[in-house]
Amino acid sequence: MTGNIIGERLILVSFGESHGKCIGAVVEGVPAGLSLAEDDVQRELDLRRPGQSLIVSQRRETDQVEILSGVFQNYTTGAPIAMIVRNEDKDSSAYKDISHQPRPGHADLVARQKYGGFNDWRGGGRFSGRITVSFVMGGAIAKKLLHECLGVQVMAYSSEIGGVSASSVAIEDVIKKRYSNEVRCPDSEAAKDMIQKIRMAKQEGDSLGGVVECIALNVPTGLGEPVFSSLDSDLARIILSIPAVKGVEFGSGFRAAKLKGSENNDQYAFSKGMIMPTSNNAGGILGGLSNGQPLRLRVGFKPASSIAKKQRTVDLDTNEEVELVVAGRHDPTVVPRAVPVVESVVAFTLADHAIRAGLIPPVLKR
Asked: Which site from 72, 277, 299, 365 is most exposed, i.e. has the minimal number of CB atoms within 10 Å?
């Protein structure tokens, strides 16, 4: 299997480059009988697309999805679902002049070495954050499948940008407010500070990193196939495939390294006749299996690599050290636009495991 395919029973094939003709996805394994229209996918893509505010890339893409196969009379047929989004507002001129000067923080040099210079270097090509369009297309189907079949709800939000952190946020606020502002943070006061930080970084020609937190509700108990396809290991794999992600943690995560077992263990008690943990430091996963509690994870994003400040690099044609300014339209932080991407990949993995567990049948009833 190549590196552009993920999933076991629900499978995503991702293709396309940043400045190529299109970004595409083929989703295999979707049950027949799921009500699906282009609008269902478009709603999710609209949350990710650039040009929606001054704190994100001003590349003007409509990201209009076209479903090419696998849907007939607004229902899935059980056949592979092929979708594309055409690249419309691409300007490769800024990249042509520096194609022989690898940009710091990008995959330019290693991609050139791996593929002998035949890789598409325009806008980062296959290594661009734009490829996450295909993640969102697949995730849109997975989210609808999970919601209609199991009542699972997946939601993410910006919990930290540039060192500004949201205070403890109630799940109800995440549901209602996560898309209420341009940084996708349900804490309105923290959102104001995040926006100010982003604007300052942009004025300085720099960028910021941050953290996206994701919560999934109503996840059935027992999803996961230990040991090498445990739920958390599969989630970590797909999350770390998002460009700019540098880390993922579940539940108490790295904080657990500072705790005692008596502090980190989720102890049990009876609640309404059911055995329930009294806390959720496990983040909804124990032994690689979902335990019925809300799934909670956090994703760390590095600062966007394309910045307007001068940086040192080398010229591969002249073998000289040079200074480089990366022109073009870039995100001062990727975090707000990454929120729907994280939702999508988490939903895709949960749906794949739900199908493996037999909780989602191959044909849905009308």
From this structure: 365
H helices within the chain, ranges in order? 38-48, 93-96, 108-115, 132-150, 171-177, 188-203, 231-239, 261-264, 335-356
Closest residue by Cα to residue 192 from 171, 155, 214, 166:
166
Architecture of domain 5-356: 4-Layer Sandwich (3.60)
| Helix (H/G/I), strand (E/B), else coil: 102 | coil
Adjacent-strand bridge partners of 286: 289
From CA 338, how far away is CA 301, in angstroms rounded?
9
Residue 6, both tokens: 């993920």
Percent of the chain with pLDDT over 90: 89
- In the predicted structure, residue 53 carries a pLDDT above the cut 70: no
Q: Report the distance separating Cα 286 and Cα 297, nearest Å.
A: 13
Residues 6 or more apart whose Cβ sits within 8 Å of residue 278: 266, 267, 268, 269
Average per-residue pLDDT in the chain? 94
CA-to-CA distance for 202 and 193, rounded, in angstroms? 14
φ/ψ of residue 115, rounded to 5: -105, 15
